[in-house]
Amino acid sequence: MHYLPDAGRYQQMEYRRCGRSGLKLPAISLGLWHNFGDSTLLENSRNLLRHAFDRGITHFDLANNYGPPPGSAEENFGRILREDFYAYRDELIISSKAGYTMWDGPYGDWGSRKYLVSSLDQSLKRMGLEYVDIFYHHRPDPETPLEETMGALDHLVRQGKALYAAISNYPADLAQQAIAILRDLGTPCLIHQPKYSMFERTPEDGLLEVLNQGGVGSIAFSPLAGGMLTDRYLQGVPQDSRAASGSRFLNSDQLTEEKMAKVRQLNQLAADRGQKLSQMALAWVLRGDRVTSVLIGASKTSQIDDAVEMLANRQFSEQELEQIDAILV
Ligand SMILES: NC(=O)c1ccc[n+]([C@@H]2O[C@H](COP(=O)([O-])OP(=O)(O)OC[C@H]3O[C@@H](n4cnc5c(N)ncnc54)[C@H](OP(=O)(O)O)[C@@H]3O)[C@@H](O)[C@H]2O)c1
């Protein structure tokens, strides 16, 4: 059926300036790591994208290797883009990345200029795009000089294949160096994409400060710890959940009694605030306005609704923040 987006979509979302750039991002962005590969029915993926856009989510995050198989999320996204979003390309912020293993041999991995330039060309073909809005180096490369990797990002922006350059998974010290190199090249780093949630607080040890001082935005990936910070696993492991899917990133071994005890306490605190745990977990990442956007995953449209409805209740009292800290130690 022909897709006509909800006319009220921009009234439901908050758009936040990304660092010291001209770009605003939705407070909630949607990632296509899961549920967009060939193992998911295309119609499910299509519904998720339509629903997200209807609710004001303008930013879709991809990477060369998302699937399975690798590349298929970009292909499926490209098809849905052509069929449903063709008229709305300029209302969307589309990102991709290269940095993890993508193809055989020495040129399909890590951070060489060779890998980044050819990978982005492949991504553009798969998605049927002339340019992506944001292109990331996906993870630091211990061997390639940072100048080469950042030089490749600068080159791709100057070629018009990406509008903005970005980094992901860089620790604070390397992020600081990368930001300085990109600034000197005249292509400022737009945003950093770290893993950040109640269960993964490493960015608080310097990274968020580096980004703030550098005028670089941040988008927190896996803000729900892959689903652990929700009510999904309170009554066991549902058949249709990520933990039951054989994921090596989230499986029942990780749902330890210790973790689940914390989840139950957090769930009670969220109930006391009149919201779901997933909503409190997202609001917590956005607290203090140090993070530009939370980058969620979703397997159901109702999960997108939960996230957007969080925006109505995202303030914390000092006491609530202390209670959360006490649960998380
Ligand atoms: N840069 C990187 O290295 C990197 C790495 C990982 C991810 N990412 C990006 O971050 C995005 C998000 O990652 P993620 O999927 O791990 O994020 P997440 O938001 O922590 O987890 C998403 C999962 O949580 C469950 N969920 C979401 N909302 C829920 C709700 N309201 N109630 C119950 N369960 C809910 C769903 O799992 P079920 O499937 O069980 O329903 C959903 O697939 C990715 O798509 C990708 O774009 C980037």
TrEMBL record:
Keywords assigned: NADP, Oxidoreductase
Family listed: Belongs to the shaker potassium channel beta subunit family.
Q: What is the lineage of its organism?
A: Bacteria, Pseudomonadati, Pseudomonadota, Gammaproteobacteria, Enterobacterales
What is the protein's given name? L-glyceraldehyde 3-phosphate reductase
Sequence ranges assigned to domain NADP-dependent oxidoreductase in this UniProt record: 28-327
Q: Which organism is it from?
A: Winslowiella iniecta
Instruction: Name its GO BP terms in alphabetical order.
Output: methylglyoxal catabolic process
- Write down the NCBIfam families for this protein, in alphabetical order: PRK09912.1 (NF007388)
Stored Gene3D superfamilies? NADP-dependent oxidoreductase domain
Keyword NADP listed: yes
**Which Pfam family name is an example for this entry?**
Aldo_ket_red
Q: Which GO terms describe its molecular function?
A: oxidoreductase activity
Recorded hits in CDD domains, A to Z, give:
AKR_AKR14A2
Instruction: Decide whether keyword Transferase is in the record.
Output: no
